[in-house]
Amino acid sequence: MASSDFNEAVLTANLDEAVSFTLPARHARGRVVRLGPLLDHILSAHDYPAPIARILSEALVLTALLGSLLKEPEGQVTLQAQTESGIIDLLVADYRDGELRGYVRFDKERLAETASLPSLFALFGKGYLAITFDLPGAGERYQGIVPLEGNSLAEAAESYFSQSEQVPSLVRLAVDDTGHIAGGILIQHLPEGEEGRERLHTRLDHPEWEHVRVLAETIKANELFNQELPLDTLLWRLFHEEEEIRVLSAVPLSKGCRCNFDYVRSVIARFGEEELEHMADDDGFISVDCEFCSRVFPLSRKDLESGTSS
């Protein structure tokens, strides 16, 4: 779509969607995401304090941005932030086929002793960010791990792309004051093309990338989570002077916790008799918790034998 072809009269808030775009003349590609009801659906399973809900919201937006890069239908992206010294012990979010899920494990007492808006370092201490791409169709799995440094999760993600992918990237994440809407944008420079060709001369000070980066940095946080601002219009504001902005169809996003009784039963049934006896309570039930959706699945020995819920 050429920039002159944008139809700003067609308004959509683009909630729970990921929109892909490219700037062909600048060898840049991008993704922009805005979450709304999906965010509430995921967070409603947990009674997270505001700072924890906020960092998980940012992580879910980042995971959606990363997941929307996948071209393989069965591909999965997992984002994991972990530390041994921070308030947050573990943060996990993943994306598969447009489905998102995530959870946080944290120390409530230590959180209560910190400021109302703790820094990234206060939350994680000396931690690391691991991003894993699983591509079952191609039989590939690769992971990048970088220190969880900087003032925000967005800065840590930029470090990941710089160190693990050697791709100049800009990441911005934002959550509104209510915590119910979150958005983000990812823009990358891919000299010599995006599709199946070797990327040559990738460097952070490339003139094309410097131009795109300067424009992208003008984006404001409230533009990312403003429900009344369509994402097409947001892109038009940023890059309307470019020769062409090519916008692809929006990808719908949904909550994707994959736990269910049959799946949990199939996993537990793989354990040996002695291990099952050890896991069972005094009444003979084995209770399995799903961290993502806070559901508990109680299984009896009869369930494991017959495959039916008690």
Gross geometry: globular
| Succession of helices and strands | EEHHEEEHHEEHEEHHHEEEHHEEH
Q: Would you state the CATH class of the largest domain?
A: Alpha Beta
Low-confidence stretches: 1-12, 193-202
Q: Give me the Rg, rounded.
A: 21 Å
Please count the beta strands (DSSP E, at least 2 residues each).
14
Average pLDDT figure: 83
Question: What characterizes the major β-sheet?
Answer: 6 strands, antiparallel
Helix content: 25-40%
Strand content: 25-35%
Our measurement of the CA-to-CA distance between the termini, rounded to an integer number of angstroms, reads 55 Å
Could you state the oligomeric state of the chains shown?
single chain
Question: What is the tally of helical segments?
Answer: 11
Number of domains: 2
Quickly give the CATH architecture of the largest domain.
3-Layer(bab) Sandwich
- Look at the structure and name the CATH superfamily of the largest domain: Hsp33 domain
